[in-house]
Specification:
Helix content: over 70%
Shape: elongated
Oligomer: single chain
Structural class: mainly alpha
Radius of gyration: 44 Å
Strand content: under 5%
Number of helices: 19
């Protein structure tokens, strides 16, 4: 069936056979007139309807606005806006985690957590520490961020400790301290970690375990780095319980352990912490003496950093002034050490002066030689500096010949 053709187009059918261009133009003109007429008619209708609406609005009374509802609506949208702004990545992660736990039916539940905790405590009292650790760990997981979780984490760590699973016990104690920084079990956690660190330190001194060889047989020590985990336990005490009774002992023990192994940089760091944070400690005098020795062993010569020499000089002065009566038998040795430190500092400046002299920067070299003579007059370097100063007194800086290699390739004839 053919689509019906409007009569308006049929009027131009005879013309289209004769004059196709004229019929096309007239057809476009006819369509535009029809469309414009419709638009005008539609606009007039809209204006009429608008006038009717205006009359109706004028005839009806203005409704009364309830301001309480407006305020409540504004407060609601403001709260919604603030909640959207507060939707941080952390909150989103927590909500997503909760949704996943609900999916596998492991969401927080107080009744289940209490039941698991009671079972874990019963296993702990019966001496079945492995099962107690499992039950207590699950109890804390099912009721997080509560005092029950704090108790469960502590008893779980204790279960591993009494089961001689010291590596797991250390991680459990660290988890407790990370989750509850001001835990009420701090006075019991610190001595446990100190005992674990001492055990591993002595064990490593006896057997000298390799850092890279894994441990699969002995459950009382970690899989890798027995000594490293010992130092980590000491650091955990000083970081989480800095004002406790065991903090200064842990800092001193970690410094001594590092010193014995020849790790003088780490030992000096621990001794510095003890001297700075515990000025009333009973370990203060041995910490200063061992720190002085570590600083001197750290120094590698005039070509390297001289911070260790400066620290050693300060420590020597402190030992001679603050601990005079306690080191009567070692005062002579400390005085000789102080003279060696001064000689080493003079050697550093002498090295710089000789460097400038080799570079033909005679003005800078003379300045350093003069500095050595004035600051360290009683040293051997001062005698050498005066001799070199007199030899280059009248030398002038010569511009370096950067193209001397060309003369070797193309000698002058």
């Amino acid at each position: 069936m053919k689509r019906p053709v409007p009569d308006s187009f049929r009027l131009f059918r005879p013309l289209s056979a004769v004059l196709p261009g004229i019929s096309l133009m007239l057809g476009i003109l006819w369509v535009s007139l029809c469309v414009s007429g419709c638009a005008v008619k539609k606009q007039s209708v809209n204006l009429t309807e608008l006038n009717q609406y205006e009359q109706q609005l004028n005839a009806e009374p203005n409704p009364q606005v309830n301001m309480e509802e407006v305020k409540e609506a504004a407060q609601y949208f403001e709260e919604e806006d603030q909640s959207l702004k507060a939707m941080t990545a952390e909150k989103f992660g927590k909500r997503f985690k909760l949704a996943c736990l609900k999916l596998v039916r492991l969401e927080p539940n107080e009744e289940i957590a209490v039941a698991l905790f009671e079972e874990g405590v019963q296993f702990f009292e019966d001496g079945n520490y492995e099962e107690a650790a499992k039950k207590l760990g699950m109890a804390g997981f099912r009721w997080p961020d509560t005092p029950l979780q704090e108790d469960a984490l502590f008893l779980r760590a204790e279960s591993y400790f009494f089961a001689n699973r010291y590596s797991k016990a250390q991680r459990a104690y660290e988890k407790l301290l990370k989750k509850f920084e001001s835990t009420r079990y701090m006075d019991r956690v610190s001595p446990r970690l100190f005992a674990i660190a001492q055990y591993w330190e002595k064990l490593d001194q006896i057997h000298d375990y390799s850092e890279l060889v894994p441990n699969f047989s002995d459950k009382t020590r970690p899989m890798f780095s027995t000594f490293g985990n010992s130092i980590k336990a000491y650091r955990t005490i000083t970081m989480h319980d800095p004002n406790g009774l065991w903090a200064e002992h842990a800092a001193m023990a970690a410094g001594n352990a590092s010193y014995i192994r020849g790790e003088y940089f780490d030992a000096a760091d621990f001794y510095d912490d003890l001297i700075r944070n515990y000025p009333q400690s009973r370990h203060l005098l041995p910490a200063c003496e061992l720190n002085l020795s570590a600083k001197l062993l750290m120094y590698q010569g005039p070509e390297y950093d001289g911070k260790a020499l400066e620290d050693a000089e300060i420590l020597t002065e402190r030992l001679l002034t603050q601990f005079g009566p306690q080191i009567k038998d070692r005062r002579q040795a400390l005085a000789e050490t102080q003279n060696k430190i001064i000689e080493a500092k003079a050697e550093r400046d002498m090295h710089i002066a000789e460097f400038y002299e080799t570079k033909r920067c005679y003005a800078a070299a003379r300045q350093y030689y003069q500095y050595v003579m004035e600051e360290f007059p009683q040293t051997e370097c001062a005698i050498r500096a005066k001799k070199r100063y007199d030899e280059i007194r009248d030398y002038r800086a010569e511009p370096p010949d950067y193209f001397a290699w060309l003369n070797k390739i193309f000698p002058e004839r």
